[in-house]
Amino acid sequence: MDIVKTIAQVREVVRKARGDGKTIGFVPTMGALHGGHVSLMEAAGNKCDFVVVSIFVNPTQFGPGEDLDKYPRDIEADAEKCRAADVDLIFAPEAGEMYPDKLISWVEVEKLTDKLCGRSREGHFKGVTTVCAKLFNIVLPDIAFFGQKDAQQAIVIKRMVTDLNMPLVIKVCPTAREQSGLAISSRNQYLSEDEKKQAALIYASLQKCEQLVKEGETNSEKLIEAMIGKLAESPCIIVEYINIVDSDTVADIARVSGQALAAIAVKLGNTRLIDNIILDTTG
Amino acid sequence: MDIVKTIAQVREVVRKARGDGKTIGFVPTMGALHGGHVSLMEAAGNKCDFVVVSIFVNPTQFGPGEDLDKYPRDIEADAEKCRAADVDLIFAPEAGEMYPDKLISWVEVEKLTDKLCGRSREGHFKGVTTVCAKLFNIVLPDIAFFGQKDAQQAIVIKRMVTDLNMPLVIKVCPTAREQSGLAISSRNQYLSEDEKKQAALIYASLQKCEQLVKEGETNSEKLIEAMIGKLAESPCIIVEYINIVDSDTVADIARVSGQALAAIAVKLGNTRLIDNIILDTTG
Fold first, then answer.
1. A158 partner at 20 to 30 Å CA-CA among A283, B70, B180, B193?
2. Which domains does chain A have, with CATH numbers?
3. How many interchain CB pairs under 8 A, A with B?
4. Which of these, B98, B149, B153, lies nearest to B121 by C-alpha position?
5. CB B208 within 8 Å of CB B226
6. Which residue numbers of A have CB closer than 8 Å to B's CBs?
């Protein structure tokens, strides 16, 4: 496994792999790798011949007052996990390699980004789409892998790729979870043991919602009420949003019919956590 | 020479050419091909093994009230010129192929686009950068060729490619001109014979500016005054802008030192015409 820091090096290594007839799988990350990332690397390894992981804490997707500075960084532990997951190449650029000059070109997806997490995280998705466009242009993968946990991100990236005819496929993989059901996230490191216990209520409330849908409840208002009720069992969880939305447009829906997304964002102390579940009335 | 209308066909033909070890040159156009386009095709043929020309009157770069509907279209004459210039492939999609759904993803270059033509043509460059990003992603050329006549466009596209790490090189080729000096443009078709004569004053005024720089004048205000004086010889030319700007940032400069751009936009009757010249004090 190579670890490279420059764009020129990535391009050279990938060009060689492609020259050997290999398909390229790509997992973009901000490091602090965990079971969720590992499951993406494994999916990439199953689908592609050559797996590239990028590790880059992208400053342009953090808003003012967000956790850019304290975001966890540990390249050696990350490299170990990549090696264990049979990754072929890590691209770990410095900020100066990705943004040598002040960036004035942006890729932006409208409409999908002003809802859910876009409401509270201004400019976040503009930073995400732009850095993903850059990384896709650098790595030129056949398939890029994203986690269902960041559901809105996956929807936005998919739309960007479709609208702009980017020559790759986006594959969204299931959310990896702790035993407790808590969605694995780099930000779980910020939680105390007690907070972790309470955080398990997020998935419990999504499961409650799923259960109600299975029992025939399709009214979004009632489903949201039930989720709020479940989360209220925690003394510390502050709900940022609970929405039931269309899985393509992220627009609120009054009734679940076919596929939909139940999505939650909460604050637990200073830590912001998100999770979601795909609802499906057809099966 | 093939003429194809779908993205899938372009990709297939280009993939085959690349598989044969050929380099890909690309000339994006809106059709109504003229000597300027032909010079780009020839430049592409000299530099690359396989030349792709796109012909697409892109609706998203026309503002309300602009000439989208009356913009000249003649695919057969265009194909003839491409054939004569040894083009290998024409991509001539319908609007529905390029924009099957409402486009909500955009590529935008800030700062460079709110000056010169960006002042009067709101949203124009956002349409240009987005369609170029789409076309680059479809054709995947090694080199794309643009004309110096649309100087600001070339500067903006170059910056987009750099900022977003797009895997191609932008080559800017000299402006093709009529005998009179008038920059060749598809919009010259709109001009009467008398207007054409007056339009020659645009280049004459740029040459005047160049001459003064050669004689040692570097004060932008004085150079602009001289150009205004020359244009005033026409009874019908209405100046939209005359600027002397930095050739990378398009910012106005008070004094010419090294390379700079003198750029003009005028209206002649209902027709908007632009032209520019590169100034160079270094010799």
1. A283
2. 2-173 (3.40.50.620), 186-280 (3.30.1300.10)
3. 80
4. B153
5. yes
6. 7, 11, 101, 103-112, 129-130, 133-134, 137-138, 140, 159-160, 162-167
